[in-house]
């Protein structure tokens, strides 16, 4: 009897050790204690613009952060998508702005800065390559190589390049637009390659939103309430079409390079076109600002901006940034959605994917037929 009990105990101990040896097997949720690093523009800025700017930065003051009574430099009424991704990854702190002094970067940092571009020299901001260089300056003193290799690197950038190009070249023909897209995407590839050579191996690339549907763009180009500015949407689509194939190529040529692409363009477009499915009442103008689409000047001291009564009914908080309600949706989609939204794997799958192992799947274009089939079977509100 005693021998039988001892055998059961040993087998039980072996089972427990087996389960906990590989975190992915535990309830399907537990993931390794890794970090999250973000790069790009105001969509991922956790407060770096406040450090770089010499003048007043509205995002450090009310009504920004109003949903949490915490205006901390983020371009929303509360948290932003990387905050939710970090939470789902089990990171117990918000990802801090890397350029702020005396912050806890033990589980990652945000190097994203408002007004960032891939090309040019943005004022009181940083290009993506400058952000990567800042990361490299902090790397040795803050994180070891193994931690960096296992951590997630999220990037969203390019919108300002196309907004500036369209503003400065209103009559650009198709060939000029195509040439500019090639310049931007080639620079993005080079900058990602530099980050890879700095030790990063797990990348989440968020493609561009339908820029012509941003409230500030609708307002600036006088599209009315029902139309988007299609010239900017076309540039965003041309840009996005190059991202997946570019990353497929890097995964084949760069050992250990792993990635996924978040289809932010269609996530925003669906919420714009079928807003009631996602419980948004207004998606063509913003909660805070002035003008025809309430899109300009939110929080600026010299602007008498309007503020909506209930921000959770809006997709956009200001002229180009989403409300916390939308940001939380994006966080859920990034972390756990299916290939119609993020592919070839979601963030949870990317985190637990073995380091240095070649990817078994590649990015594939999502066809409208595939999306429609999923809409029918699972409900459009899922995406």
TrEMBL record:
Signal peptide per UniProt: 1-28
UniProt-listed InterPro entries: GDSL, GLIP1-5/GLL25, SGNH_hydro_sf, SGNH_plant_lipase-like
CDD domains: SGNH_plant_lipase_like
The keyword Signal belongs to this UniProt entry's keyword annotation: yes
Keyword annotations from UniProtKB, A to Z: Signal
Stated family: Belongs to the 'GDSL' lipolytic enzyme family.
Protein name: Inactive GDSL esterase/lipase-like protein 23
Source organism (scientific name): Camelina sativa (False flax)
Lineage: Eukaryota, Viridiplantae, Streptophyta, Embryophyta, Tracheophyta
């Amino acid at each position: 009897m005693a021998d039988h009990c001892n055998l059961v105990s040993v087998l039980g101990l072996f089972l427990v050790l087996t389960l906990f040896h590989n975190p992915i097997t535990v309830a399907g949720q537990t993931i390794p204690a890794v970090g999250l690093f973000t790069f790009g523009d105001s969509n991922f800025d956790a407060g770096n613009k406040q450090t770089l700017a010499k003048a007043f930065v509205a995002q450090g003051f009310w009504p920004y952060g109003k949903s949490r009574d915490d205006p901390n430099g983020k371009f929303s009424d509360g948290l932003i998508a990387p905050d939710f991704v970090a939470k789902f990854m089990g990171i117990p702190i918000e990802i801090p702005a890397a350029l702020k002094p005396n912050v806890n970067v033990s589980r990652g940092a945000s190097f994203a800065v408002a007004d960032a571009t891939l090309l040019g020299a943005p004022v009181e901001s940083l290009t993506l390559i400058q952000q990567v260089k800042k990361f490299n300056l902090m790397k040795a003193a803050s994180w070891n190589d193994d931690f960096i290799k296992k951590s997630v690197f999220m990037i969203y950038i390019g919108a300002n390049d196309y907004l500036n190009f369209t503003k400065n070249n209103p009559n650009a023909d198709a060939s000029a637009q195509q040439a500019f897209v090639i310049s931007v995407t080639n620079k993005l590839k080079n900058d990602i390659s530099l980050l890879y050579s700095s030790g990063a191996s797990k990348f989440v690339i968020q493609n561009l939103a339908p820029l012509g549907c941003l409230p500030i763009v609708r307002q600036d180009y006088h599209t009315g309430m029902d139309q988007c500015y299609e010239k900017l949407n076309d540039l965003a689509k041309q840009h996005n079409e190059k991202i997946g194939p570019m990353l497929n190529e890097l995964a084949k040529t760069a050992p250990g390079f792993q990635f996924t692409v978040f289809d932010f363009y269609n996530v925003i477009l669906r919420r714009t076109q079928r807003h009631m499915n996602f419980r948004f009442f207004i998606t063509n103008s913003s909660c805070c600002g002035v003008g025809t689409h309430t899109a300009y000047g939110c929080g600026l001291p010299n602007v008498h901006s309007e503020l909506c009564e209930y921000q959770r009914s809006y997709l956009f908080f200001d002229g180009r940034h989403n409300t916390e309600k939308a940001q939380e949706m994006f966080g859920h989609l990034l972390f756990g959605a299916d290939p119609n939204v993020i592919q070839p794997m979601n963030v949870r799958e990317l985190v637990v994917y073995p380091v240095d192992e070649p990817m078994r799947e590649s990015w594939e274009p999502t066809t409208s037929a595939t999306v429609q089939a999923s809409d029918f079977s699972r409900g459009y509100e899922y995406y």
